[in-house]
Amino acid sequence: MSKENDRSTTYQEGSLTLPGAVMLGTGVMIGAGIFALTGQMAEMTGVLFPLAFLSAAVIVGFSAYSYIKISNTWPSAGGIGMYLYKAYGNRLPTAFNALLMYFSMVIAQSFLARTFGSYSVQLFGGDGSGRLVSILGVSLIIAAFLINLLGNRLIQGVASLIGILKIGGILLFGLVGVWLADSITVDFSSTGEAGTIGNFLGATALGILAFKGFTTITNSGSEISDPHRNVSRAIVISIAACVVIYTLVGFVVASNLSLAEIIETRDYSLAAAARPALGEYGVWFTVIIAMMATAGGILASIFAVSRMLAMLTEMKLVPHRHFGMPGSIQKHTLVYTVVLGILLTAFFDLSRIAALGIVFYLVMDIAIQWGVLRYLKTEVDARAWVPAMAIFLNLLALLGFVWVKLNTDPFVLGVAVAAMIAIAAAEWVFLQRGWGRSHSDDEEKRTPEHRD
User: Fold this and answer.
1) Of 138, 255, 265, 349, which one's alpha carbon is 20 to 30 angstroms from that of 11?
2) Number of neighbouring beta carbons within 10 Å of residue 41
3) What is the dihedral sign for C-alpha 196, 202, 205, 206?
4) By C-alpha distance, which of 96, 106, 102 is closest to 421?
5) What count of Cα atoms within 13 Å lies in the side-chain half-sphere of residue 407?
6) Where exactly are the transmembrane stretches of this chain (predicted)?
7) What's this model's pTM, rounded to 2 decimal places?
C-alpha cells in the first residue's frame, strides 16, 4: 500500500488509567459547562437555570445508558464512530451521524477556547473589540495541539493535574460562595416569560452540552485499561461529579448576582459572581481556575475527536489526504481538527458556537439511541425502554431549543441545517462512488443482516 493511501492507525492499548479517563471526561464537561453556559442558560430561562442543569443531567443519564452498554461490549478508540457502524453498517447514517459528532466536538473545543479568552481578558479589564478573546483562544488550541503530539502519558498527566486543580478550585469557590452569600435561596416563583416550557427546554438543551463531554471517554475506549469495565465506570463517575459541581456553583451564582447581572456577564458569569462574594482576589482566583479548566478541556477534546476522525478514516467512511504530512493517520486528523477549531474560534461568538454544537449533538445522540433500540439491544443486553425514553427526552430538548432560536437567532439554525445537508450530500456522493465499500471481510461478517 502506498504511503499516500495508508489509512492504518496505531493505538496504545491500556495506556489510560481509570482516573486518567475520568479526568479527560470531566476536563471537557466542566470546562464547557459551568464557565460559559450559566449566563446563556439564565438568559433563556431566568432564575430556573440551576434546575435546567439538573434537567439536563436526567436526560444525559438516560442517554449514557446506551453508550455504557455499547462500550462494555465493543470498547473502541473510534468510540461513537464504531458504535454507529455496529448499528447501521458501512452506510450513510453511520458516516453522517459520526461526522455530526465530530463537528460537535470540534465546536466544543472552539467553545472552550473562546471561554478561555473571555475569562482571561478579565485580568486586563475586558476586551471591547473581542479580538483579544479570539487571539487567546487560538493560542490555547495551538498549545494543546503541541501537547497532543507528545503522547498519551503526557496528555494523561497534564489533564489529571489540571483536573485535580480545577475541580478543587471550583468546589472551593462553591463552598466559600455559599458560606459568604446572604442567602442561597432562589426565588423560582417570579420567572415571567423566561419561565415558559419552551425556554426551559431550550436551556436544558444547553445544559446537555455541559455534560456531553462524557463521550470523550468512549472515543478513547481501547486505550483505557480494562476497557470492558473502566469505560462505563469513568462515564458514571464523570457525570456524577459534574452534577454535584454544576448544582453547587449554579446556586452560588444565582445567590450572588441578579438575573440581569448574570445575563450581562454571560460569557464570564462565574468571575462576576466572585466579586461580590470574594472581592477582586476572588475574581483573579476564579479566572485562573477557568483558564485551567478550559485548557484541560481543550486538551482532552482534541485528544478524543482526532481519534474518532482517524477511526472513520480507517473505516473508509470519510475521504483522507496526507497533503505531504509525515507521521500516522492520528497526527493528520489531529491537524485537521485543530485547523477547524481555530477557524471557528476566530470567527464565531460563544452563543452561536454553542447553538451549532447542541443541534449536531442531539441529532447524533438520537441516532445512537435508535440504533440501540432498533438493532443492538439484544447484542448489548439493553432494556428497550431506556433508549426509548432517551429519544423522547432528547426530542423535547431539541424542539425547545429550536423554538427559542427561531425567535432569537434564526440565522444559526439556518447554518446548522445547511451544514447538515452539506454533510449528508457529500457523504452520499463519497459512498455512492464506492470509496467506502472496501471494508475488511472480518468487519462485514460482524455486520448484522438487517443492515445489508
Assistant:
1) 138
2) 33
3) negative
4) 96
5) 11
6) 21-41, 47-68, 92-112, 132-151, 158-181, 196-214, 235-263, 283-310, 331-348, 354-373, 385-404, 410-431
7) 0.81
How many other C-beta atoms lie within 10 A of the C-beta of residue 390?
25
The residues spanned by each domain of the chain are 13-451
Query: 224: which DSSP letter?
Result: B
Q: What's the rounded mean pLDDT across residues 305-328?
A: 70
For the chain, state the CA radius of gyration: 21
At 104-135, the pLDDT tens digits run 888 878 888 888 888 888 777 666 556 788 88
Distance of alpha carbon 168 from alpha carbon 288, whole angstroms: 12
Q: Can you tell me whether residue 225 is helix, strand or coil?
A: coil
- Return the closest-CA partner of residue 105 out of 213, 195, 21: 213
Cβ count within 10 A of residue 132: 16
- Give 331's DSSP letter: H
Question: DSSP code of 11?
Answer: -
* Cβ atoms within 10 Å of 151's Cβ, excluding its own: 12
Q: Which residues pair with 224 in a beta bridge?
A: 16
Distances (CA, A) of 175 to 254, 269, 277, 286: 14, 17, 11, 13
The grid coordinates listed for 37 are 453556559
Supply the DSSP string of 153-188, one letter for each residue. Answer: HHHHHHHHHHHHHHHHHHHHHHHHHHHHSS------
For the cut 80, the answer to whether the pLDDT of residue 150 exceeds it is no
Whether the Cβ atoms of residue 346 and residue 141 lie closer than 8 Å to each other: no
241: number of Cβ within 10 Å: 18
Q: To the nearest whole percent, how much of the chain has pLDDT over 90?
A: 22
Confidence of residue 147 (pLDDT cuts 50, 70, 90): confident
Class of 13-451 in CATH:
mainly alpha
**Alpha carbons 275 and 128: distance in angstroms, whole number:** 20
Residue 212 carries which side chain, given as an amino acid letter? Answer: K
Q: What are the cell numbers at 385?
A: 425502554
Higher-confidence residue of 188 and 411: namely 411
Collapsed DSSP state (helix, strand, coil) of residue 17 = coil
Q: What is the pLDDT of residue 101?
A: 85
Nearest to 275 by CA among 266, 267, 286: 286
32 pLDDT band, cuts 50/70/90, is: low
Tell me the C-alpha to C-alpha distance, in Å, between residue 415 and each of 353, 368, 405: 11, 23, 12
CB distance 202 to 45 below 8 Å: yes
CA 433 to chain centre: 32
Distance CA(216)–CA(80), nearest Å, equals 9
Distance CA 322, CA 281 (A): 49
CA distance 98 to 116: 27
DSSP-derived secondary structure letter, 16:
B
Cell digits of residue 15 = 495506556
